[in-house]
């Protein structure tokens, strides 16, 4: 006997049940359960709530996983190159460059990186990334600058572990801020085309140039915010060095 | 003009290359008798390699089974890094002094090929074919950049061909299951979209909105972009839902707002959400592992004040400009 099919609109409760996956994700992340398990359970729960059968759902998960291989691909391809160069002293070389430059501070290096990243992504160029720029080059440069400022104090002050972690987190943020907030302002390739597509699907004509140009105010504001955050980081590093020197003074 | 074009350099070539790299990781674990999680880790990397090598050819439910197995191995803590080998700092410093600025050539070449290739490769066409699929140009250009940089780095460092695989395998194992977190999130986003989760949320937002409140519509649109991005981990997924659900019917059609201004600031409000959600794992969580941070959420904490102020700026700018 065949079960009767559910009507397409089975009332507001059945619709609201589809949000179960959102609830599973929020609860699972809050309880710090294994993230992959949380995501799988959320996907299965949502699929069942939407009336997708078990085998069909397994196939959907498989198809979507393969469709999104491109998110994992860059790191897999990059790691052999980055690993090889790191074994031959790439991080040490990046740090040495900064020691030679002298006056650079960690915050100024990160701000310069954010600016460079914003400028390149304005033209639709994707020049950066945590795996290829931040870990091997930018973070070691910023750390070297912070260490150098401690080393100039007498007696020399080492960079403590919590501050080093804070600095690395700022380096990762510099990449995100630079990457996100100046998308496609001059040359459109990514998000602006997506926006245009969405408007066109609703029958509204929008110029790509206008969509890009209206991104400029936020790009400038993001640079100001970055300057503020990195200045704060520099001050924390200076204050630590001053405090450590004062404590050690006779 | 033909509709079916030949693509001379398909992205699948780089999927296969990644599959081979992952398979090498699995083999090296299987042969490592000292590995603390030998069987589980080898199985994890071999299964992941399988999805890269033949994922498109296998029946989808079988790939789905592989995904379930990957999650099960990770959740039961069967995936681990090898015993840590102490880093030889002196040797690295000596190499850095021997190679000096030449060490920076490969990353520079990588950046040039990746950025230049993304712009130029899609324009190259042959008789009856194109070099790359324009949608895949960024990925293909990055792949070419890696290959070019490796070809330069190997003679430069005088390393054997196995050295990058060993070093890369070590880094990949340190990342562990976090490597596939972004991919799983994207897959979950796909299930949400297929199940119509976005429509339910947009429908709820519509009921919240009273008539004759154009500025409230701006706040709700921007807030919805951020909230939805936080939940899905992706502003691009939030944009169609909120724009078709709130933006166009209320801000543009009912109150006569400018669609370009609305779209630009709306998307940027979504990016503020990306900065504060662990769901955007590739931007916020994987880098924390890459940078060896003890707190997996350290990057989110650094980004939160920036995100809050930037969001306010976007809302106020849209409110001031969209109805001019």
Give the key terms.
heterodimer, A: 250 residues, mainly alpha, 12 helices, 75% helix, disordered N terminus, B: 324 residues, 3 domains, 3-stranded mixed β-sheet, 3 strands
**Overall tally of domains of chain A:** 2
Shape call of chain A: globular
Which class best fits the helix and strand makeup of chain A? mainly alpha
Shape of chain B: globular
Kindly, what is the distance between the CA atoms of the first and last residues of chain A, rounded to a whole number of angstroms?
91 Å
How big is the Rg of chain B? 24 Å
In total, how many domains does the architecture of chain B comprise? Answer: 3
Indicate the multimeric state.
Answer: heterodimer
Structural class of chain B: mainly alpha
Q: Tell me about the biggest sheet of chain B?
A: 3 strands, mixed
Strand ordering within the main sheet of chain B? 1-3-2
Strand content of chain A: under 5%
Characterization of the model:
The complex is a heterodimer of chains A (250) and B (324). By secondary structure, chain A is an all-alpha fold. Chain A folds into two domains: 12-67, no CATH class; 86-248. In chain A, 75% of the residues lie in helices and 0% in strands. In chain A, α8 (130-152) packs across α9. Residues 1-8 of chain A have low confidence and may be disordered. With 324 residues, chain B is mainly alpha-helical. Helix content of chain B is 71%, strand content 2%. Chain B has a three-stranded mixed beta sheet, with no helix packed on it. Chain B starts with 5 loop residues before the first strand and ends with a helix. At the A-B interface, α2, α3, α4, α5 and α6 of A face α1, α2, α3, α4 and α5 of B.
């Amino acid at each position: 006997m065949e079960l009767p099919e559910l009507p397409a609109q089975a009332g507001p409760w059945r619709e609201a049940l589809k949000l179960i996956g959102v609830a599973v994700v929020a609860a699972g992340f809050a309880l710090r359960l294994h993230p992959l398990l949380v995501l799988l359970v959320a996907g299965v729960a949502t699929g069942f709530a939407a009336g997708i059968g078990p085998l069909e759902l397994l196939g959907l998960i498989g198809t979507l996983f393969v469709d999104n291989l491109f998110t994992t691909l860059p790191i897999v391809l990059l790691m052999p190159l980055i690993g090889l160069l790191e074994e031959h002293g790439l991080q040490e070389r990046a740090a040495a460059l900064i020691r030679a430059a002298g006056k650079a501070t960690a915050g100024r290096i990160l701000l310069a990186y954010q600016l460079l990243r914003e400028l390149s992504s304005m033209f639709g160029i994707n020049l950066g990334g945590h795996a290829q720029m931040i870990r091997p080059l930018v973070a070691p440069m910023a750390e070297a600058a912070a260490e150098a400022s401690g080393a100039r104090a007498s007696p020399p002050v080492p960079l403590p572990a919590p501050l080093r972690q804070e600095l690395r987190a700022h380096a990762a943020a510099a990449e995100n801020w630079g990457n996100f907030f100046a998308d496609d302002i001059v040359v459109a390739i990514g998000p602006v085309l997506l926006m245009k597509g969405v408007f066109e699907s609703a029958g509204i004509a929008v110029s790509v140039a206008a969509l890009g140009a209206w991104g400029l105010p936020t790009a400038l504001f993001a640079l100001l915010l970055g300057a503020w955050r990195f200045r704060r980081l520099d001050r924390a590093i200076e204050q630590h060095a001053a405090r450590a020197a004062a404590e050690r003074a006779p | 003009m033909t509709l079916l074009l030949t693509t001379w350099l398909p992205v699948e070539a780089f999927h296969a290359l990644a599959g081979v790299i992952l398979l090498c990781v699995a083999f090296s674990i299987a042969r490592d008798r000292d590995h603390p999680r030998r069987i589980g880790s080898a199985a994890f990397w071999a299964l992941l390699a399988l999805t890269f090598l033949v994922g498109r050819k296998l029946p989808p439910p079988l790939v789905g089974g592989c995904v379930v197995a990957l999650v099960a191995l990770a959740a039961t803590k069967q995936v681990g890094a090898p015993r840590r080998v102490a880093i030889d700092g002196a040797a690295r410093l000596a190499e850095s002094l021997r190679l000096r600025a030449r060490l920076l050539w490969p990353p520079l070449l990588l950046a040039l090929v990746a950025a230049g290739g993304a712009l130029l490769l899609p324009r190259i066409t042959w008789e009856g074919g194109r070099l790359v699929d324009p949608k895949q140009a960024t990925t293909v250009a990055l792949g070419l950049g890696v290959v070019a940089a490796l070809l330069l780095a190997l003679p430069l460092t005088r390393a054997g061909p196995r050295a990058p695989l060993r070093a890369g395998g070590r880094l990949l194992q340190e990342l562990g299951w976090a490597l596939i977190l972004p991919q799983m999130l994207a897959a979950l986003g796909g299930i949400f979209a297929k199940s119509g989760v976005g429509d339910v949320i947009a429908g709820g937002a519509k009921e919240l909105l009273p008539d004759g409140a154009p500025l409230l519509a701006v706040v709700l649109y921007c807030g919805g972009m951020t909230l939805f991005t936080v939940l899905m981990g992706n502003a691009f997924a939030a944009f169609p839902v909120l724009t078709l659900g709130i933006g166009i019917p209320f801000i543009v059609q009912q109150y006569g707002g400018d669609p370009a201004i609305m779209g630009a600031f709306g998307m940027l409000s979504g990016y503020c959400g990306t900065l504060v959600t662990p769901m955007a794992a590739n931007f916020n969580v994987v880098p924390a592992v890459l940078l060896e941070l003890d707190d997996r959420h350290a990057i989110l904490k650094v980004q939160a004040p920036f995100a809050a102020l930037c969001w306010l700026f976007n809302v106020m700018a849209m409110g001031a400009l969209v109805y001019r």
